[in-house]
Structure formats: C-alpha cells, structure tokens
Amino acid sequence: MSFLQSLTDRERVFDFLIPASSPVDVRHGPILYLEDVTVSFDGFKAINDLNLTIDDGELRCIIGPNGAGKTTMMDIITGKTRPDRGSVWFGSRHNLLAMNEPDIASLGIGRKFQKPTVFEALTVFENLELAMAADKRILPTLTARMTGETRDRIEEVLVTIGLTELRQRPAGILSHGQKQWLEIGMLLMQRPRLLLVDEPVAGMTEQEMERTAELLTGLAGKGKQSVVVVEHDMGFVRSIARTVTVLHQGSVLAEGSMDQVSNDPKVVEVYLGADPDEEAA
Amino acid sequence: MHSSTSWLARPFRERATQLFLGILLASLATVTLLNLALPAGHPLHVSTYTVTLLGKYLSYALLAVAVDLVWGYLGILSLGHGAFFALGGYAMGMYLMRQIGDRGTYGDPVLPDFMVFLDWDSLPWYWLGFDMAWFAFLMVLLAPGLLALVFGFLAFRSRVTGVYLSIITQALTFALMLAFFRNEMGFGGNNGLTDFKELLGFDLRSDATRLGLFLATGIALALGYVLCRAIVASKLGRVSVATRDAEARTRFLGYRVERFQLFIFVVSAMLAGVAGALYVPQVGIINPSEFSPIFSIEIVLWVALGGRATLYGAVIGAILVNYAKTVFTGVMPDAWLFALGGLFVLVTVLLPKGIAGLLAYRVNPQRSARKPDDPSTSPREVSA
C-alpha cells in the first residue's frame, strides 16, 4: 500500500487506496444514507423507493405496521439482503452494497436482533470478550491473551448494561431482559458507529423497559454512537424518540417529532386502517 | 510483548489437566513397572500381550479426543473420523511394508508381497518415499490433514452442517472403504498391509518394542490432550463453542466461521491420523475395515458414553467401552453389539452427560448442575 501511495501524488489520496476498514467519513453530516432502495421478493415489493438519512450521533426510531419493511431495511444495511436497485452509503466513503456481512460488521455497524441470541454456554464476560473489536482471524484468536485494557473495556460495558454482578455466570441463566442488555453490550464491545436495534423491549417488564430507555438514550450522541431503533411499543418510542420515521409499504410515510407524526392524518389512517392492536400498542 | 506460544502453556496451569496428566503418567509408569519388574508368574504381572492391548486402547482414546474436539466443542458430528484414523494407519503401514525389504515371502527387495502376487513390476508413484521414516511420519499428518482440508473446505464453505454433514462424512468413509478394498488401488485390497517386521530398526515382535509403543502412545495421548485443551481454553475455543450454539450469530460478530470450523476439523483429523499410526504397529495390520461406517459411529458412542465436551470423558469412554468389548467378545462374541446398544440406551437415559457428568456431580453437585461447557443445554443439540 505504501509503495502504491509513493507512486501517486503526495497530496492526493485516491479512494481506491483507502483501505476498506478505514474510519467512516461523517464530515458531511449523515452516517447512513439510503437512496431509492427497492427490493422485491417474488414480485412483492418489501422496500419501495426508500430514502432515509441518519445523522451522526442521532437516535432515530422507526415505526410502522407489520410488513412495512422495517426488518428488510435492517437486512439491507447489514448486507444480509441485496436490494434490486438503489444505493446505501455509510458516511460518504463506504458503499455498503459492495461489502459482505463480516466486513460491514467490522466497519462499525452493529445489529441487535429481535430475538436475543447470546451464547448460552459461555459466561456473560466471555460473551462480551468474543464480541470485542479485535483481530478475528484464526491465529490471532488462538494466541489472544486477556490484557488489562481488554478487561477494563469489558468491565466498563458490564457497568453500562448493569450486569457486573452476573459476569461469571453462563448467559443461559439470564432473564429475557438481561439477555437483551447483554446483546446490546455485545454490540458496544465492537465499538460501533451505528447501532441497529430491532424491537428491544418486546416481552420486557415495565422496569426493564425504563432501564432499556435509559440505556439507549445514553448511548446516542455526537462522537459516540448513532442509534436506530425499530419498535412497536408506542409508549416506549414516545419515551426515547427525538425523531420518528414511519414506514409504510416499503417507503417513508412521515418523518418528524413524535407529536408531529402522531397527528399526521396519513399516519393515523395507516394505523387505524391496519390492525387495531397496532394502534392500541 | 507476550510470546505467541503462551496459549500452549495455558493447560498446564489448569488443575483438571494437571490431574488428568498425573493419572495418565502414573498409569503408564505403573504398567511399565508391573511389566518389567515382576516375574511372569506373579499375580500382579502385566503381560506384554496386555501392554499391547492397553496401547491399542490408548490410541483409541486419542482418536476419541479428536472426535470430541469437533463434536463436543464445535458441534460437528463427524461420523467419518475412522477415515482419518485409517489414513494415518495406512501411511504408517506403508512405511512398515517398505521396512520389510527382501524378508517378505517372495523376497523382492522393493515390492511388498501383494504387489509381487499381482505381478506388478514397479512401485506405484504414491508408494515412493515411504521407505524414509520422516516422510512416512509427515504423511501420517498430511494425508488425513489434506483430506480434511479439501472435504471441510467444500462442506463448510457451502455451510453444510448438522445432520447433512454427518451423512456426508459417513459417505466419505464408506467411499474410501470401497476404494481401498480394490486391489488395483495398490494398498493390498481387502487383506490390507500386514506381516510387519520392524519400526525404526526395532523388532516389532520384541517385548521392549511393544512396551515402547505403549509408552509412545500414552505420551501422544498426553500431548494430544494438552493441544486440544489449549485450543479449547483459548479464545478460539470460545469462538468454537459460540459457533456450536449459534453459528449465524458468531458469523455476525465478524468471525469467519467456516475458517474456524476448517481449522479445528483439520487439527482433529491430524490427531486421528496420529492415533491410527500408533495403532497399526501394535495390532500388526491395517485393512479397509477401519474405514467401515460402523467403526466411525462406534467412536462417537465412546465419546457420548464418556461425556461430550469434556475431553477426559472421551478418554474414559474409549478405554471403558473397548475394555468391555474385549471382555464381552471373549465370553459371548455374538452379544457384544447388543451390549453396546444397551449400554448406549442406558447411558443416554440415565446419564445424559455421560460418565464425566457423573464424576463432575460427585465432585461438586451444585456447580455441575449447570456446567458452562455443557452442550445439552444448548439449542443446537437437537440439530447436531
């Protein structure tokens, strides 16, 4: 790489010379940028000309009735699903459509799935250790040693997610809510720039929900992470949201503060016209 | 900077590993002493026949450890590890055949007897080099290792796991068995390779060589155990357990799961090859029956009976089942398979964690109620 660079003009760094793992470029504001994204499954358009911009450090909630394309959107951002057309950029340098899942993960996009999947046979501490940003090739993993720095980082995240006491217990014994927090902790270990959180409070008790709201709002911020939350629970969304995006039939129906959005006649119609349970929730 | 080999030293600091190595080395020393120091008529004398039998058990134990590494810690139920064992055995057998020289029945200085019998006039190319011990010993590692590398690369890259992988490993060993049965393959057909004379210049029929082979097998088991423990106790071992329990999740953390699977599969195949190479000079023959699918399934039974994902359980299982097999086939040859089947059913119902689970319960009832390494609490168990 340095050889190639020496051949080129010293002042100018060509894009193709920048390693794919280089930090995300957010000088222009947005950390995530989706434009005209369309994806269809067997003719059904799950995502239809979707445009979405997330700013650096933002906490964004995405709501929408079932089948609105929320999970598919997450799949596209993380490289699990390839769109038929459109473009997806991470900062202004990284084209996510040209990358595979592990590369996108190591670039700094972390995703929490709907159903918590932690490694039940491993301890809480070990779960966090595996999730940590590190050289994940075979030999470095085989010879890896626990350094003081690593331990401090894990302890720090244990405090954030409130599981310090349970650090040496197998993750299999955790309650549902605790598993969700451990998952979020595992995301934090990767030092992500963008967190995608899918239904974090499904099945949680009232106290667990409050604790999760504190956790998520504490995470987002300039110079920290940007957080995208997909959630059904309106009460929860109201308690954390600054900006809300409503998805409907694969595209953005409305965007704005919770009050603006919930008074938008189109949104009211979609929610009233759809499943009445959705509206109640 | 820390040294890059400290992961290999880690097992020596574990109490359980120290205990295992202590018991193993003490057993080796005791058997040696009882064999050498006591006269043949003494009631505690261990005959050379028994020493060789124990050596055979130890080579099976090493094979079981190799299987436990991939099944217990990686969740890959290989029903074809007999193939890697047999390939290691054939590599050793080919060296031993070349050592016979002109002492064979037909007295040909180069060609083994079966080739003379088949009217071949020269060695096939793949027999070249096996007159040199270093080359043959290298092949003991490389032949199973390369097969595992190619097979594993194709299987893991296509994300074939679970039952499907188990079935194709069965097919692999079955196909190799059929191939090795053919005389044209040049491995002695259904008779295999036998009538060995010496190994590294030591007469294979002498008592001292047999005791030496027993000790070498015991030390190979100790080293193989330490290597597996080192892998399991490393971060790579935790990635392996993570893969076993939630493969997609592990991939999403940024680990290239298929490469980890391939690495552990190849290490395991090489260990199985070493076990086969130590087995052959002690039993004096290698033939295609070692490739039989039933044998590979039997190995898995040893591990299941001993206790999966413990390594020491695999050793206990291999030795106990094979001891039982020796006794049973001596008393009632026809009843052995029924006994094995019955044992398997009983252990599965009464001791789901195997003998190792029972031992752990005796030592510490509370902690063993939920062991971190325990695969039976993982959702993958059903599919694996």
UniProtKB/TrEMBL annotation, chain A:
Residues 32-274 form the ABC transporter domain. Keywords: ATP-binding, Nucleotide-binding, Transport. InterPro entries: AAA+_ATPase, ABC_AA/LPS_Transport, ABC_transporter-like_ATP-bd, ABC_transptr_urea_ATP-bd_UrtD, BCA_ABC_TP_C, P-loop_NTPase. One of its GO terms (cellular component) is plasma membrane. One of its GO terms (molecular function) is ATP binding. This is Urea transport system ATP-binding protein. It comes from Halomonas fontilapidosi. The lineage of its organism: Bacteria, Pseudomonadati, Pseudomonadota, Gammaproteobacteria, Oceanospirillales.
Automatic annotation (TrEMBL), chain B:
It comes from Halomonas fontilapidosi. It is a multi-pass membrane protein. The lineage of its organism: Bacteria, Pseudomonadati, Pseudomonadota, Gammaproteobacteria, Oceanospirillales. One of its GO terms (cellular component) is plasma membrane. It comes from the Bacteria. The keyword Membrane applies. Pfam families: BPD_transp_2. The keyword tRNA processing does not apply. This is Urea transport system permease protein. It is found in: Cell inner membrane.
